[in-house]
Amino acid sequence: MKAIVQRVRQASVTVEGACVGAIGAGLLVLVCAEPQDDAATGRALLAKLLRLRIFGDEAGKMNRSLQDVQGGLLLVSQFTLAADTRGGNRPSFSAAAPPEQARALYEQLLQDARALHPEVAAGVFGADMQVSLVNDGPVTIPLGF
To answer: Which of 14, 66, 81, 85 is the most exposed place for a label (fewest CB within 10 A)?
Structure first.
């Protein structure tokens, strides 16, 4: 799985004019499943997300995790993270998992996240989404599993 993690002051996802997911301070995570991924890959990503120390402590150092600060977690499926542009100017997305597999992995990731963290919001798999955010820092970190 690939992910882009953004520390945010707030973030939301809108589909067809309706807000489908929103958080205050926390993490907005764009997630892309790849063909070799399975539920264990998603659990490893989730463990990293919940424990990644990118929130400031009393001294202002990035030393606190999402769990430490009890921030929100907004997970958004984003197959375009698998883009390969080496062959020209039009990206290839063949490195992304097929839609059926990607949907199942995303839904499992959401289920696992909701079981482990009190505030989890989500986008809509396969939908045309508008994502709004106020990046805090800015802090943006790519992850790969």
So the answer is: 85
Contact assessment for residue 57 and residue 64, using Cβ atoms and an 8 Å cutoff: yes
CA distances from residue 103 to 36, 55, 59, 106, 112 in whole angstroms, order as listed: 14, 30, 41, 5, 14
C-beta separation of 74 from 122 below 8 A: yes
Given 6, 14, 55, 78, the catalytic residue: 78
Distance CA 108, CA 133 (A): 24
Structural domains of the chain, with CATH: 2-136 (3.50.80.10)
Q: Which amino acid is at 144?
A: G
Which pair of structure tokens corresponds to residue 50?
Answer: 């919940």
80 is an active site residue: yes
- Reference 133, options 1, 2, 5, 3; nearest CA is 5
Strands 26-32 and 72-77: parallel
Q: Is 78 a catalytic residue?
A: yes
